[in-house]
């Protein structure tokens, strides 16, 4: 009887909590509320013959999978138990009216300090597919990442035949050295970073690397069955080809949006991109390698040229049998990349407006700033004894000491300006002009300059690659939005000859701007807030290749950014780094006690009263909730949930 009463108290308390938290009309309510608990911790692991401490979530690398359905509300309580500052970004989630929970450090929030907590809350509004979450501070994404899988609403089928099984495949990069120290050393040197020591598939390097014969991931398959592979690129500085020996890949989704089926021998993903592919197990019984190899379009850049291997293995295969290895394209095969991009089309026709309210022309590329250090041998190791930088329209983005969103919302002066140029200050032969025809002032300027858009405006962005240092494919990601990729091509963009697809362009959140070329994207600015737009190659982001877009409020609550949550991490001056782009690292928490759970608030910022038992319940590290009264199916300590959960668990 006591257990029954306790259960009823928990149940009704959660109902009251959900009602109070989501009572305001301007916030999407969600169909079900799914609770997750993230503890960011350090863990010692051994790979590539070396041991080191890495940052992970819940002791897992890659981290735990977050499951939901379209329309669900997701609540994730993040506790930072590492000595580092941390934020979590929910990559590809549009964060409708929930910009405060987007996650990029010093853009939408200050980091979660060591020993502190922050609760992320957002709704999957009209979104489903393969997403992922990752740290958005320093280079911690290397090990702090995991999948976010959002299924269609109950009863809504896929637009393709239901696969026999689904598997998550996360592509990554691994360094033997500490990645936070590595980024700091790279910035301090003024030069380029060393390449990754290994590529990884689901955290495993595979047998091609030293001490890694047993560190290999595999998928067991049944002859004749169809498998859905959810590919996620969580790596830092390299784009990669992916293929399975003797098997075709049929693309059915890109960046969490359905596409017309397109069959190919291989795909290419840049950091930040996701892709769903169908694979039919139609080959003789055996072991077939899934290979991840480099795509490096820039000249003179060091990269890891050894492929990571995992296995697509048929049941009953002799464990001692050799694996067949796919032939990947050459590391600089731009045509192979274009072929995949050419095959991407939205599943259904779209009706895009030809009337554009905001036209922006944005150059992307690398720069070399003049050496101003008194110790140039230590700090000016870039090209021509300069300091490497990167920019959009010749502006290298500097993250402020307080988040741009908080400064904008609270009207705090001095943190940013609203004068990002709508076009480069100088036009020249962007692609072929190096080195003779480039203006002398193409050294980038440092600043926190933002783009400002009116609510509801139709926006077209033209991204132009430049050859100031070297032309290169840049995976550009826009937070808070997906956009239609209406055109792309080689050379300098020419509006007289550019062809736009306004019928069925792919709908993406990360676009690879072609090496020595351009890409055009289009979207409606209907989500108020401050949204980071940046290259997803982390070294380029560290060098300043990004900016922030401010979308103004519209009319009424449904077009107005709500006020910040009460537990939003606070700025602490002592922890801020003076480096251009490195987010700060804090000292270890002095307190030996458990951090206090932030008091829940409703969307007006008023505290929600919960009974003491529920507070203790929510603070219990051994208890998770997927939805009210329904625990998440455990996959065992340290194991990934690679196969789709039971439908009964996602009702």
Automatic annotation (TrEMBL):
Query: How does the cofactor attach, per the note?
Result: Binds 4 Cu cations per monomer.
Cross-referenced InterPro entries: Cu-oxidase-like_N, Cu-oxidase_2nd, Cu-oxidase_C, Cu-oxidase_fam, Cu_oxidase_CS, Cu_oxidase_Cu_BS, Cupredoxin, CuRO_1_LCC
Identify the PROSITE patterns for this entry: MULTICOPPER_OXIDASE1, MULTICOPPER_OXIDASE2
Which prosthetic group or cofactor does it need?
A: Cu cation
Return the CDD domains for the record: CuRO_1_LCC_plant, CuRO_2_LCC_plant, CuRO_3_LCC_plant
This entry's Gene Ontology molecular function terms read: copper ion binding; hydroquinone:oxygen oxidoreductase activity
Q: Where is this region: Disordered?
A: 579-600, 630-651
> Quick one: a GO cellular component term?
apoplast
Q: Where in the cell is it found?
A: Secreted, Extracellular space, Apoplast
Entry EC no(s): 1.10.3.2
> Glycoprotein among the record's keywords?
yes
Q: Which family does it belong to?
A: Belongs to the multicopper oxidase family.
> What is its biological role?
Lignin degradation and detoxification of lignin-derived products.
- Per its UniProt record, what PANTHER family does this chain match? LACCASE-6 (PTHR11709:SF324), MULTI-COPPER OXIDASE (PTHR11709)
Protein name (Swiss-Prot/TrEMBL): Laccase
């Amino acid at each position: 009887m006591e257990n029954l009463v306790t259960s009823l108290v928990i149940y009704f308390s959660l109902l009251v909590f959900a009602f109070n938290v989501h009572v305001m009309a301007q916030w999407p309510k969600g169909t079900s509320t799914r609770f997750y608990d993230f503890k960011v911790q350090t863990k010692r692991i051994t790979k590539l013959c070396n041991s080191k401490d890495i940052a992970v979530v819940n002791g897992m690398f890659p981290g735990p999978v977050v499951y939901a359905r379209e329309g669900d509300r997701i609540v994730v309580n993040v506790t930072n138990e590492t000595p580092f500052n941390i934020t979590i970004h929910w990559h590809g989630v549009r964060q409708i009216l929930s910009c405060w929970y987007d996650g990029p450090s010093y853009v939408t929030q200050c980091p979660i300090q060591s020993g502190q907590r922050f609760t992320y809350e957002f709704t999957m509004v009209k979104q489903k597919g393969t997403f992922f979450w990752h740290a958005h501070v320093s280079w911690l994404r290397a090990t702090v990442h995991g999948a976010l899988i959002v299924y269609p609403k109950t009863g809504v089928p896929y637009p393709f035949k239901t696969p026999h099984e689904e598997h998550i495949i996360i592509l990554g990069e691994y360094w033997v050295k500490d990645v936070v120290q590595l980024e700091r050393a790279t910035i301090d040197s003024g030069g380029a970073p060393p390449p990754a020591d290994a590529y990884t598939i689901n955290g495993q390097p595979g047998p091609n690397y030293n001490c890694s014969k047993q560190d290999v991931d595999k998928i067991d398959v049944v002859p004749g069955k169809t498998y859905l592979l959810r590919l996620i690129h969580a790596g830092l500085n390299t784009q990669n080809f992916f293929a399975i020996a003797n098997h075709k890949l049929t693309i059915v989704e890109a960046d969490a949006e359905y596409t017309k089926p397109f069959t190919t021998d291989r795909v290419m993903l840049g950091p930040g991109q996701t892709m769903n592919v169908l694979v039919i197990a139609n080959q003789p019984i055996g072991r077939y390698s899934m290979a991840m190899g480099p795509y490096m379009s820039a000249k003179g850049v060091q990269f890891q040229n050894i492929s990571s291997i995992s296995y697509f293995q048929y049941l009953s295969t002799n464990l001692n049998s050799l694996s067949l290895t796919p032939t990947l394209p050459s590391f600089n095969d731009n045509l192979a990349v274009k072929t995949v991009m050419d095959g991407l089309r939205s599943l259904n026709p779209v009706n895009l407006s030809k009337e554009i309210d905001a036209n922006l022309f944005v150059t992307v590329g690398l720069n070399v700033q003049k050496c101003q250090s008194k110790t140039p041998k230590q700090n000016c190791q870039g090209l021509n004894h300069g300091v490497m930088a990167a920019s959009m329209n010749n502006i290298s983005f500097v993250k402020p000491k307080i988040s741009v969103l908080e400064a904008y919302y609270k009207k705090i002066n001095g943190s940013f300006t609203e004068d990002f140029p709508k076009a480069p200050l100088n036009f020249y032969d962007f692609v072929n002009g190096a080195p003779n025809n480039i203006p002398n002032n193409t050294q980038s300027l440092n600043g926190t300059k933002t783009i400002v858009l009116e609510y509801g405006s139709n926006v077209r962005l033209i991204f132009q690659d430049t050859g100031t240092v070297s032309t290169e494919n840049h995976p550009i990601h826009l937070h808070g939005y997906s956009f239609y990729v209406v055109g792309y091509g080689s050379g300098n963009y020419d509006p007289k000859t550019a062809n736009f697809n306004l019928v069925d362009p792919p709908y993406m959140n990360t676009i690879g701007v072609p090496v020595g070329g351009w890409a055009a994207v289009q979207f409606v600015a209907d989500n108020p807030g401050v949204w980071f737009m940046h290259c997803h190659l982390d070294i380029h982001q560290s060098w300043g290749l990004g900016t922030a877009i401010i979308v103004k409020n519209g009319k009424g609550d449904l077009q107005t950014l709500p006020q910040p949550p009460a537990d939003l991490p606070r700025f602490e001056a002592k922890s801020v780094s003076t480096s251009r782009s490195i987010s700060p690292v804090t000292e270890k928490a002095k307190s030996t006690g458990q951090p206090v759970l932030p008091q829940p608030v409703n969307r007006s910022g008023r505290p929600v009263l919960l009974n003491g038992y529920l507070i203790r319940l929510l603070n219990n590290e051994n208890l998770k909730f997927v939805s009210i009264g329904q625990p998440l199916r455990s996959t065992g300590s340290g194991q990934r949930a690679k196969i789709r959960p039971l439908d009964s668990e996602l009702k």
